[in-house]
């Protein structure tokens, strides 16, 4: 096994273990300082939950990345005389790392800003207005663009920067919206990171792969405690940080290779992120159609519609995991496919979400039917009760 695979495996396993060890600490801190999520309104949980799970994900990600930077710096200075093979390998990567330092700093600074935004939201209990959130998220996205992380396939640099900002803010909020059921956002994020990690490994993008696998391990370590029935929630701090980091890494990675026949691989991030994008789009359409506030939580999400079809929480979450895998695995094939093959993959993805849309509509209609029947039964029961009372009189 070469050193590249050892390092990739080490960051994945290491981040998973560190995250899993940090979560119990976050649970205790959340209860001690009252950072809790209470049942109510559109929420599906029945018990009070600690809200600091995002802290475990953030701290793990930063700790692993900063440890990697330290090892690279020490190896370039010849500080590992007993590990000559590892030292040579790390020293070889150091010039590549130096070239990526501005973009890495942009990611870490922007990610920290997003995490603090979510953490303050969680601690306050009363969320910031969506306008304030959008402004701060926009600033964090601008930090990325200024550091050099931006799209490059459009005709004008300004246009590339604007689309990058919109993409980062959109994906950041998509994962925040997806965090509506035990294990959903964290599990989907882990699957997406692993799929994107495979793509970047195939294309030799070592540092992108390292960060994606670090985030995958961090979310999986948290998922151990977050899968239904959950012991902790990631809160806005976790969901916003995950969304921002994934968005940034999709922009910093390249999907068009020397083997690619067309530019179609640029749509790979859209396909891999199909589930959170579909959930966000469908929720916004439903709220707009029903003339409800676009940025107020409700039970119109993909996952909630599956519950209305009769699925349990676990079944609904696993179903969404499988959909994420289906669309993601298909996307892995695109860089090496000819144009017709790529178009067929795109059609397949569209058909998958078309079928899901039909399921969502069916689930909503069944829910309305059950509610109407329940109301009719309650009326009949009330009438019988009234008649019985009159007979006694």
UniProtKB/TrEMBL annotation:
It is a multi-pass membrane protein. One of its GO terms (biological process) is cell wall organization. It is found in: Cell membrane. The keyword Endoplasmic reticulum does not apply. Mg(2+) binds at residues 176, 236. InterPro entries: Glycosyl_transferase_4 (IPR000715). It comes from the Bacteria. It holds the Pfam family Glycos_transf_4. The chain crosses the membrane at residues 6-31, 51-74, 94-120, 132-151, 157-177, 184-201, 207-225, 237-258, 264-286, 316-334, 340-361. GO terms for cellular component: plasma membrane. Keywords: Cell membrane, Magnesium, Membrane, Metal-binding, Transferase, Transmembrane, Transmembrane helix. CDD domains: GT_WecA_like. Its cofactor is Mg(2+). GO terms for molecular function: metal ion binding; phosphotransferase activity, for other substituted phosphate groups. This is Undecaprenyl/decaprenyl-phosphate alpha-N-acetylglucosaminyl 1-phosphate transferase.
